[in-house]
Structures are given as structure tokens and as C-alpha cells.
Specification:
Helix Hairpins; binds zinc ion; 23% strand; 2 domains; HSP40/DNAj peptide-binding domain
Length: 377
Amino acid sequence: MNKNPYEVLGVARDASDADIKKAYHKLVMKYHPDRNPGDKNAEEKFKEVNNAFDILKDPQKRAAYDRFGDAAFAGGNASGANPFGAGGNPFGNGAFHFNMGGGAGMEDILREAMRGFGFDGFGGATRGASGRRTGRDLLDEVVIDLRDAYFGTTHTVKFSSNVQCEKCHGYGTADGRPAPECSRCHGTGYVQTNRGFFAMETPCPDCNGLGHKIDKKCSECDGAGTVRKSRTLDVKIPAGVEDGTRLRLAGQGEAGQNGAPAGDFYLDVRVRPDKRFERDGADLITRADVPFTTLALGGEIEIETIDDKKLSVKVPAGTQVGEKLRVRGHGMPTRRAGNFGDLYIDINMPVPTKLTEKQKKLLNEFAGTKSAKKGWF
Ligand SMILES: [Zn+2]
Ligand SMILES: [Zn+2]
């Protein structure tokens, strides 16, 4: 059972998207497995936070939750439509996974909600002729460092999912050919029944909603058309990827039923804030401590770039604290190949606290000069 996502994130029912995102970011950093190795409690919290965010970040899911509560999402589990079963996590790496259902439009959510209430009455995008159902989409999340976002990286996901049975090409039949259409439902998998005012569609009792009847089952998958398989996906994360990017691997989700197309695999990429560099779109901002003398007289400072290079930067005479020096082309890669944002150096000036007698004398002399007395600015 999921916890109230608003409570999990500590936000109000009418919280804005920005507030929800902010609360999520704070909590996901706090409970991230990398920061809490071996801490079961943190792991649990991490999952809760991700599940809550998954609902609240999506306007349709949020609306469904507001209307139906947990039933909007529990339906899949209750009916067994969720191939992972309650609490079954195919990835097992502590990251979160929301089973979105093929398409995951409002109609799907409503259908899931109705299942939760004991109905199964909506036709829809996931059910075509002959009980062909597109496979479910899968979703995973990865948190990467800014440096990895700069260079691009590969995320390897290990999980198990249903894949099409090779022996029967997904048809579940011994001969590997499509099974004959069910004569009662004419292949739709559903029959109409009347309940009071409502004409309802219910799964066809002859074929159990499959739309076809298999005489001789495939020995490999026992007629299911799919088999459970451990899988490994190498997901390429492009250089310059932004926080919150959702990557899609078409056809890499769960296998479809009865030879229908597989769902998609999605990877949500989060970029961990960096200690040295703040990101502003394609630009980066770093902070540099510069001595008063260099700022006043002009000079050079050495800074480190995100790609671990040392860079010598000219500081013009009279540079003020809080001014930003721009170094072109040392920001993040942009979508245009070979194009980079800029690096801004935020100038800071530490005031020396341990002065030698000689330094004090020199500063006193400076303070005594005519222009310094009037103020040198
Ligand atoms: Zn039937
Ligand atoms: Zn098979």
C-alpha cells in the first residue's frame, strides 16, 4: 500500500509543481542509497519518496490520485495486471519503478481505477483485436554526477521482465502460429452484459479474455506467449543531459500479449548538484577566492574546469567582489554537437586574518596614503 504522496513529500494538497519538485529533490538526496549504504530505513524512504513524486509530478496521475486516492494505482496489483506483483521490484537496486501501463493516458488510469473497484469495463488503447495487448512500459531512475552529465555516461540496468517466447513467436501455440479466434467473443476477448442501467463489458468466459483459444500449448511458455527473463540494458546517457530528462528505449519494456508489440523502457535521469559548479542551463558558475591585491592591480588566477583541466584566467585591474568573469566555451555541452555553454567565475575575496608585522606595516602605509584616505573607489 502506498503512503499518501503529499505526506511523504511534506507538501500541501495544492502545492505547485515547483514546490513538489523542490521537496522531492531535497528528500531524494537525503535518502539516496549512495549516501546511506546499508540503511534499510533510508532505502524504504527513498522508494516512498520516488513513488510519491512519480504520482505528483504527472498531472494526470495526480488528478487520478486526488479523485480516487490509492485505488487509482492499486488496481493493477489487485487484478494481477501488474506483472511484478505487489512489492515486486524487478531491478532490486533501490531505485524506483512505476509501472505505467501501456500508454498511461487518463483512460488507462481510469481503467486501472475501475479494476480496483471490481470492474473491468473500459475498452482502450492497450486492447486491440484478438486480445492483443501492448506490453507494459517500464521506468527506472538514475542519479548521476554533473561530471558524468558533462561527458555522457552509460547506465546499466539489470532486471527481469516478460519477453516474447521465441519458440512460439508470442502466440502461445505449439505450432507457433496465431491461435484461432474465439467464436463467442469473435476475438475481442470481451462480452457485453447488462447490469441495471449499465451495459458492461466483461472478460469473455470462454477464452478468459484472450480472444482466442489455444488447442495445443507451446511447451516453452505453457501458452502464455511470454517467458520471464533476466535482462541487462545499457542505456546511453548523452553528454550535456539535463536534470529531469526522460530517455526512452522503444520496445524495451514488457513483451506484449499474443504477439503484440512490447512496451517501452524509460530512464529518468537526475543530475546530482555539484560542490564546485552550479549549473544554469548550459552555463556553469564556479566560485574563486582572489586576493585583494590581484583584484586591485590585475593579474591571473588558476581555476579548475568541470573536465578537470587547469585554466589560467586574466583578472582585470579593479575587478569587484561579486563580479562574474566569463570564460567562453567551458560550460556544459549543448544539444548542438561541439557547442558548449560558458563558465562564469564568481569573484570572492577572503579578508586575511593572520597578517605578519611587515604586512601590517605595509597595509598601514597604504591606508595612510592620500587616495586611500579618501577611499580608493
Ligand atoms: Zn472469447
Ligand atoms: Zn511459447
